[in-house]
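explain this:

___
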Amino acid sequence: MRQTSHPTVTGRDRAALLVIAALAVTVPLSLETHLEQVLRESVEPTLSRTAGVSISLATADVDLAGTARLAGVRVGRLLDARLMTATVDTGALLVGQVRPSEVTIDGAQVTLQLRADGGSDAEDLMRRLTRRPATSPGKARRARRARQHAVASLPAVHLTDSDLRVTFPGGEVDVAAIEMHPHGALHRLSWGETTAAARGRGFDVHAGFGRGAVDLDLARRRVERTAVVGGRIEVTHATGAVVADEVALLAGVGQDDGPRLVGRIGADPVSLALDRDAAGTLHATLSGAGMPLAPLASVVGWIAPRGAFAGRVSATWIPASRELLLDGDVQIEEAAIEHGLLASSALPVSGAFTFSAQLADRERSGSVTISGRAGLTPISAAAELRWDEAHHIVAGTLDAEVPESSCADALASVPASLRQPLDGMLLSGQIAARAHVAFDRGFEEPTELDINIDNRCRVEREPTHADAAGLLGRYTHKYPGGARIMALGGADYVPLTQVPPHVVYAFLAAEDARFFQHNGFDLDQIRRSFEINVVKNRVERGGSTISQQLAKNLFLTPERTIGRKLAEAVLTWRIESRVPKSRMFELYVNLVQLGENIYGIGPAAWHWFGKRPFELTVAEAAFIASLAPAPATSDRRVHERGSMDAETERRYRAVLGSMRVHGMARPDIVAWALRQRLAFRRRTT
């Protein structure tokens, strides 16, 4: 049998093995010791001081293959990583230099905090870490070449099992299961479920996405492509909720390279394109159909819009000047707006509009232009506004025009709920209108008002329940407590021939001094009322003529809305066209409320003074006429006191003053009336 020979281990070989074994133990130990020393004495304090946040490492080690492992890496509140592994050049490491060729981060928890100005704590950290001191031109060129070399030799980065939270004013975003690996010349960052929530002025937003991915150019700090899919966004507002499904955020994908948000609201596709330039200017364009109006309530807080619109709306926000630019081309169908000033119920809206607006928050000024069709009627308007620190409008101008249009189309364009008092009315002919309004609270006379209406409408059929011709005969009016015939012989009806001139003058002075001269509308009175309301910042003076009040008392409800004023204007036009002024005034003084459940001059004269109208003095007539703005309230206050309260007396004196100013009562008679103590009729409760 052949015997196998074994190599003989000599003393020299044993010595070599011992050296190798020693190196295998001592080199990693020395590297680890050196690395620990560098980290503790140099890297950690230097980075912390430069970054302005605490940077720490729990443990660090390195092996002969040049792999460094850093456990428990913390960077302030921004980053908390379980393990960071880097393949490094061990020769450089021994002299205190770290040049990783590959980095793996495992189990990282990243928290970013965004500010209202668009900055973030991460951006601040990177700015501090990359800040360079001033230096000579030669050193600057060498430093620039060194940075370019460093960028060109950035390591491959792997990110595994990591999560991200982003907080910002009014909301937060959570991203789970983040992974990142080299992908050709780029890095592919992908993640799993994403949830987001935001709270705004009167609305809440909740969003969720199934997965997402981006391609990153780390060297240029740039995102090349983005795809976030499987999304659902729900916006909840006081008017309800709007839900968008099949939502995706895409950038650099397809023909359009810019970032865009696409999805569906019901069956209608919508998209939102976004862009931000180097100066920080943000551009956004919303387009599609079925887009909700409810979010507008956060911008125009005094209305509650409902429904949807189709078309395009673009917005540009310039943060440097705090300026917002808007323009759009939209169609609105089966939508509604709701506000007590407009109507008592939701107001349907339809039309097609082109608009533009410029709002400069720093200068507290803005301008708006709009043109299009409201229903069937063409309209155009332009406005300029200025506001104060509390966002109250302090000055502005408005120019509006309705070009020549069909009267029938104009009437049909009024929402059905507003034209209900005009049901059955049929018009022909043409109408056009222009209006100019300007106001500035800084001036003594703060308003300008010019209204021009070219009314060539012909009435083919009067409203079914508001035919002015019926007022010429024995018209029967229904009061809250019953009905009364508005003609001679009717109970409590007082013909104008039995109303003394000073009583007539008292009502004219109190309500409408130019009643017998105007055609139903007194532009000077409207201008004055508008001026007072602007100065007081509330509706304090109505500005209605006796003709308008008659139309309201005869055919309309007492609500104070723009919708009712529109119907009132049409009915005033019809009454003025069909009924003589004397008959109108006679109807008015027999209809007007002058106490709690007291209607007409006859019952009022008895209720207050136990007299018939022709027995009233100038002072008594002025008092009764002064009650029209608040009859029930004044009645209760005077009844409780047994005399006039301060507000009632103020109106009473104002009526007497107006009678003197307009030549309706001699100064000595007014002076005598002011000295009188009114003797109210004693009433039993």
